[in-house]
Amino acid sequence: MTLYFAYGSNLWHTQMAERCPAASPLGRATLDGYDVMIMGRGYATIVPREGWTAHGGLWRLSDNCVDSLDRWEGMDGGSYVHDTTEVERLDGSRVEVMTYVATDDRGGRPTPEYSKRILDGAQDFDLPDHWVAHLNDVLNR
Q1: What is the CATH classification number for the domain harbouring 41?
Q2: What is the pTM of this model?
Q3: Residue span of the structural domain in which 47 resides
C-alpha cells in the first residue's frame, strides 16, 4: 500500500472512485513549504514556497491504484513525476507519502470543470476555509 497526498482534482472522491476504486481516503494533511499553482497545461501542481503550507487529502492506494493514477496523470508522457515527501496529519503525526509534481512550471489556466473538481474535492476533505479561498484565487487568476 502507498500513502498518496492529493492537492488537485484527485481530492474529489467521485473522481478517485472512478480512477481507483480500491483507494481509501484517510483525511486531510498538510505539506509545509509548498503552495499550489496551475501549470501551463491547465492542471495543478505543487511548488516550493517558503512560509506556506499546502493543504490536501491523504489516500491509501493499492499498487493497481498507483498504476491507474500514473496513466491518468500522464506519467508516460512526462507530464508529472512522482515525489516522495512528508506530510502532517490532523493528529500531528507525520507520514511519508507519494505525490505528483508537474514537470511544467509555466503558469496556466484551468478549465471550469477542472476547477469544480478541485473545489468539490476540497469540500470532500473538509479543507480549511482559508485554503479553499486561496484555491479559488489560484483557479481564477
Answers
A1: 3.10.490.10
A2: 0.95
A3: 2-139
